[in-house]
Design goal:
It comes from Sphingobium cloacae. This is Polysaccharide biosynthesis protein. This protein is 82% helix and 0% strand. The radius of gyration is 21 Å and the shape is globular. The C terminus is likely disordered.
């Protein structure tokens, strides 16, 4: 372990992960306050509807969202290493243009389909207009350009600050809504304003950092012209978009499916359990976000990025084990304290879902390694197969075991994702001698 910490890249990963962790820890606590206020102020059915409204907008944005932050890191980081500001500017312009196009498509599709899907997903007719209002957030939820800029420029401290803003505003608004008896509409509007303010702050930080570094016109959107000057741009963004859209939609669409099959009250319980599960997996998530930019500065033909992945994965798996024990020991009293005894049933679901914590945390480097090695299509196939299998298991398990079945399906999906991603990663490692340096791949 002492030798591990002598690696500057490993230390940078831990440093940046600690920035993100400091923001997310506070954000997670504030989010629990917001959820607790909603859980106590609303009936289980209305609380579930609130979760479905948020999940619908998040799910649509996840489906249409291009992983432009990964594109910026993948093509922009090598350009900055070479001090090629012109190329970095082309990368960010293409990314911004893609965000605008996908956000507009998501907004139109999401608002057009909602009136037809509302009843099936558990949104009452009188609440459709509020849900349509929430859908106007889809374009800003879709944009990942400012995140990519800040990660590439190594400003994880700004990201940490931004991560506190949305949950802080949501918590404050939740307290006001609970104390003032503002009801369902008050909570929807509060969540809306908080999401909007937090996302706009990201754009402010990115624009300010670009100006500070004298990188001008980087946020002037472009699309086809910049893409022609960036070899492999469309292949990368389409492949990563489909892969991540499939996987990122797991949580929101799972809520929608649970709500459609078991009712909004069950969707609320699933939301609580999944929120706790995601919070438990955050340490590995912080490492992942700081891991990817670091390995993009290394040569994939050498052993260094692969060793770095093993070390980071072992560390993340250990953190996952610790969080698993914490969840098992303190999950039930915490849910009872925060949400009330009527939501304790969510702990049984959380216990089942937590079984996959170690697997999901320890294997996070696999996908980044595939992107580094130019094997993004293999990642797409792996995640697509895992998501398809999860969807089938989710419907079947809910039919057979009810809400607990949704937790069993979630565990199965996580394990399949790890296995399907491990196979091409091992193949890429064995053939690493034929891989070009990342700067040549990015050209």
């Amino acid at each position: 372990m002492k030798h591990w910490f002598s690696d500057g890249a490993f230390r940078a990963i831990l440093r940046n992960a600690s920035y993100l962790g400091s923001g997310k820890l506070g954000g997670a606590l504030l989010s629990l306050i917001a959820l607790a206020c909603a859980g106590h102020a609303l009936s289980p059915a209305l609380f579930g509807t609130l979760a479905v409204v948020q999940a619908y907008a998040s799910g649509v944005s996840a489906l249409v969202k291009f992983q432009t932050w990964q594109f910026i890191v993948r093509f922009g980081a090598p350009a900055l290493v070479r001090k090629d500001i012109g190329r970095f500017r082309e990368v960010t312009r293409f990314s911004f243009g893609l965000d605008l196009a996908s956000g507009a498509a998501g907004l139109i599709a999401g608002m057009a389909l909602l009136p037809f899907l509302a009843q099936w997903v558990g949104i009452a007719r009188e609440d459709v207009y509020l849900a349509l209002l929430y859908c106007t957030l889809i374009p800003i939820m879709t944009a990942a350009t400012p995140t990519g800029i800040l990660r590439t420029l190594d400003r994880f401290d700004h990201l940490a600050v931004q991560q506190l803003v949305t949950p802080l505003l949501t918590a404050i608004g939740g307290i006001v809504c609970y104390a003032g008896g503002l009801g369902f509409a008050g909570f929807v509007i509060t969540w809306y304003v908080a999401e909007l303010a937090g996302d706009m702050l990201l754009w402010f930080f990115a624009a300010r950092e670009l100006k500070r570094r004298d990188i001008h016109h980087a946020l002037r959107p472009g699309l086809f012209a910049p893409a022609r000057r960036i070899g492999g741009a469309w292949d990368f963004v389409w492949t990563t978009n489909i892969a991540h859209s499939i996987w990122s939609a797991w949580g929101p669409l799972s809520n929608v499916i649970v709500g459609g099959m078991l009712g909004p009250a069950a969707a609320g319980l699933f939301k609580i359990a999944s929120t706790f599960f995601e919070s438990a997996g955050k340490p590995a998530n912080f490492l992942e976000k700081s891991f990817y930019p670091e390995i993009m500065r290394l040569d994939p033909a050498s052993r260094r990025p692969w060793r770095l992945a093993v070390r980071t994965g072992v560390l993340a798996g250990g953190l996952g084990l610790v969080m698993l024990l914490v969840v098992m020991a303190g999950g039930e009293p915490l849910i009872s304290l925060v949400f009330g005894k009527r939501y304790v049933e969510a702990f049984s679901l959380l216990q089942v879902m937590a079984a996959s914590l170690v697997v999901s945390t320890a294997t996070f480097p696999l996908e980044s390694l595939l992107y580094m090695a130019g094997r993004q299509r293999a990642a797409l196939v792996a995640e697509g197969l895992a998501a398809l299998a999860y969807g089938v298991m989710l419907v079947a398990m809910i039919h057979g075991f009810g809400l607990i079945g949704a937790g069993i399906a979630y565990v199965g999906g996580m394990i399949l994702k790890a296995l399907f991603t491990l196979v091409p990663t091992v193949a890429a490692y064995r053939g690493r001698a034929s891989l070009s340096h990342h700067e040549e791949v990015a050209m």
